[in-house]
Amino acid sequence: MKRSAWSTVAGFLIYVFMLLPVAIIIWMAFFDQPYLNFPPKGYSLRWFAGLANEAELFRGLLYSLEIAVVATIVSLLLGVSAAVVLSRARLRGQALLENAFLLPLVIPAIVSGMAIYIYLYQLSGVLQAGLVPSTWSLVAAHVMITLPWTFRLTYAGAVAIGHDVERASLDLGRKPIGTLLRVTLPLLRPSLIGAGIFAFIFSFGDLEISLFLISPGQITLPVAMVQYAEFKVDPTIAAMATVQIVLVAVLLAVANKFIRFGEAFSGGIKQ
């Protein structure tokens, strides 16, 4: 009983430690004065209303949304294809192949961004083509960091649904492509939605890789926020961060309705 009580207290303190910075950022977004001072002298919503006038931040928001949508779609196509094939195949070294898709999670994002930039820069010299910086190199890098999520979540769903329904569809005369479109993918819908949301969140919030690969005049929201903070320290940046936090929280709440991430990464999901 005592151990349970101590575990509860320890868990509560850990959650407070993790979430306190988020709560402080949201609190700062409502400060009235144009500088950060504790305790605040008043509260206001004017920083949220003024976000539309911050051209760089607003442009960064739209660009981040564009990159995240494209990267999520490509990542889903690749991740679902690999997940379905590997979940149905019997290959030598299959476990190694499955774990290989998770390798980008092991490498620090700043190292990945630098490595991708150097590689594409050297390749540009060989091909005599400007590969970096460009929007497509940024999308490719975002696909790399989101692919582990789309693969792992859809792989867990594909393993959970098993082979019986697909075999029954094939036995009844439906062709493999028809079985994939009419049977497998509908059964994977919860995993697909959850994986897509997770991929979007990681692409939308990426800073380290984007720092190396953004094109001149086109910056993502995290980079725009860093550049803004270099010259100004006011609640505007906290207001934009609050918008991001709310967006991510809503997406995670939606994803939680479709997929249980703990089960996905521990072995499988019952659809």
What does this structure look like?
This protein is mainly alpha-helical. The protein is 76% helix and 0% strand. The chain has helices at 2-28, 46-49, 55-88, 94-100, 103-106, 109-127, 135-161, 164-171, 176-187, 189-204, 208-213, 221-231, 235-258, 261-266. The two termini are 36 Å apart. Mean pLDDT is 81; it is low at 265-271.
Structural class, please?
mainly alpha
Strand residue content: under 5%
The largest β sheet comes out as:
none
Give me the Rg, rounded.
22 Å
Distance between the termini: 36 Å
**Tell me, what's the shape?**
globular
Low-confidence runs (pLDDT<50, min 5 residues)? 265-271
For the residues shown, what is the average pLDDT?
81
SSE pattern, N- to C-terminal: HHHHHHHHHHHHHH
Count the DSSP helices: 14
Number of strands: 0
Summarize the amount of helix as a percent range.
Answer: over 70%
Topology:
Layout: H1 2-28, H2 46-49, H3 55-88, H4 94-100, H5 103-106, H6 109-127, H7 135-161, H8 164-171, H9 176-187, H10 189-204, H11 208-213, H12 221-231, H13 235-258, H14 261-266
Which tags fit this structure?
single chain; 271 residues; mainly alpha; 14 helices; 76% helix; globular; disordered C terminus
Short structural description:
With 271 residues, this protein is mainly alpha-helical. Helices cover 76% and strands 0% of the residues. The protein has helices spanning 2-28, 46-49, 55-88, 94-100, 103-106, 109-127, 135-161, 164-171, 176-187, 189-204, 208-213, 221-231, 235-258, 261-266.
